[in-house]
Every structure is written in structure tokens, then in C-alpha cells.
Amino acid sequence: MRMATRLAAAAALAVALLAAAGPVGAALSAPTPTSPANGSILDSLPTFGWNGVVGADHYEFQIAADPAFASPVLGSGYDDFATRNTRATLKKTVPNGTYWWHVRAVTKSGAVSAWSPGWSIDKEWTSAPVPQSPVDGVDVPYPATPLTLTWSPVPRAATYLLSIATDPLLGSLVTQLSGRPVETSALAFTPLFALAPGTYYWGVTPVDAEGNRGTPSSVASFTWVWPSTTTTRFTDLSSASEVVDPQFSWARIPGAA
User: Fold this and answer.
1) d(CA 103, CA 121)
2) Which of 12, 109, 156, 243 has its CA 20 to 30 A from that of 220?
3) Secondary structure E strands in 107-184
4) What domains does the chain contain, in order, with CATH numbers?
5) What's the whole-model pTM score?
6) What is the spatial distance between Cα 167 and Cα 132, in angstroms, rounded to a whole number?
């Protein structure tokens, strides 16, 4: 009787241990995404989060430009990587657009769960610089008023592309800039050359750390004016009436070489 009692107790303990460990060969549950909410519209990439899975050693995270995850966006190690956390933060940014992400659990032995449902985010980096000076449409007299273009900062911009052109579409960039926008990390630019008199248009586009362009500013204008009118004077240096020894002179023009 005593032996039977011991066997029954051992059997009960074994059943309890098996129940606590879970059924043999049970499938690993898929993680459940938690944040950001599916379909979120964001101006930058967030921290992605999901619920932990019992039995998981780590997690594999993926982000892509299509719901089938066939279009990676950043390259191996940046948009498909492993983490022991239940959070993932990308080391690089991406252009504006719609992206999908999912995650799966992995055991120490390498067994994997099903992928979580694919959730989407819309990245819309829409903050634009605002031209500040010169005031739109103002005259800039050379050389009395130095030309310095300034604009407001944009969060997450690493540099800015400044375009100065002779048309409001910014298609005819001034040749003194080699026909290309000026790239600068500053919020101001002072040309080191004089422009031909006329009306000019300018705008600024922010650029993030990965070279992705953001939303351009509105186009502002200024008129470059060089007050170059002068007075002339003729002087006959000879006192003899039959000889003319002319001297031509004029008032100095500021900015003239």
C-alpha cells in the first residue's frame, strides 16, 4: 500500500511538471504588434514594439516597402535583424512613403514562430523651411545691403539645399553657383559674388541624414539693384584756345571694380 501511494504521488508530480512545461512540441506563438498603431502617420520612424512570447530567445524584425516584404528598404542588417528586446529602432531613416513591418519569435534551438500580422506606417516628413530674409519682393541694393539669405530650421534636417534662380520654378539656377543648389548645414547663406541686376527667386529644401529630401519651402523673391548712375565732367586742361587737352572724370560708383 505504501509503495502504491508513492507511485501515485510520483505520477501526479510528473503530470504537474508536464502541465507547467506545456504540451510537447507545442508551436511557438507569434508576437503581437503593439506600437505604433497600424496605419499610423508619422513624420519620422518610431520605435516599434510587440508583446513578448513565452519560450522565445530572441526576435527577428523586418520592415519593407510592400506588404509581402519583398522590397527591403535599407539593406541587410538594417531592415531585417535580430533583437532580444521587444522593441526595435532603425539606425537609418527612409524616404517618405508607406512601409510594413512584422516580427517573429525564435527559440535557442532556432525554431521560429509564424510572423506577426504585418502592420503599416506612413512616413510623412512634411515640415518645410520658411524663408525669412530678405523679405519676399524686397529690393537689395548693392553694395549698401549685403545679400544674406536666411530660413527657419526643420527638425531632423541634416543639411539644406538652397536654390537661387532667375525664374519662379527655380529651373534656371544662377551660373555663379555652377548651376547647382548650394548644400549647407547652416541656416544662412551669403553669396561671395555680385549678381547681375534683376529679380531672383530662391527656395530651400531640407535633407535628412541619409540624403532623403524633404518638403521644399515656398519660393521667395528679391530684386538685386545696383545704383550705378553717375555724373560726368569734362575739363579742358589747356589754356590755349587753339588746343584742347581734354580730361574726362566721373563720380565714383560704390561696388565698381
Assistant:
1) 15
2) 156
3) 119-123, 131-133, 138-141, 149-151, 159-165, 182-184
4) 27-123 (2.60.40.10), 131-225 (2.60.40.10)
5) 0.74
6) 19
Distance of CA 204 to the CA centre of its chain: 13
Give the pLDDT band (50/70/90) at residue 249: confident
The answer to whether the bond into 36 is cis (omega within 30° of 0) is: yes
Percent of the residues in the chain that have a pLDDT greater than 70, as a whole number:
87
Q: Kindly report whether the peptide bond that precedes residue 143 is cis, defined as omega within 30 degrees of 0.
A: yes
**Which residue is it, cell 522565445?**
56
The DSSP code for 206 is E
Cα 175 from Cα 167, distance rounded (Å): 13
Q: What is the mean pLDDT of residues 153-178?
A: 92
Identify each DSSP E strand in 38-108 by its residue range.
40-42, 48-50, 58-64, 80-83, 87-88, 97-106
Residue 48 pLDDT grade (very low, low, confident, very high; cuts 50, 70, 90):
very high
Q: What are phi and psi of 80, to 5 degrees?
A: -150, 100
- As a residue count, the chain comes to 257
Rounded-to-integer distance, Cα 14 and Cα 102, Å: 38
Indicate if the pLDDT at residue 169 is higher than 60: yes
Measured CA angle at 168 (ends 164, 169), to 5 deg: 90
| CA 108 – CA 156 distance, rounded (Å) | 38
Residue 9 phi, psi (nearest 5): -65, -40
Mean pLDDT of 164-188: 91
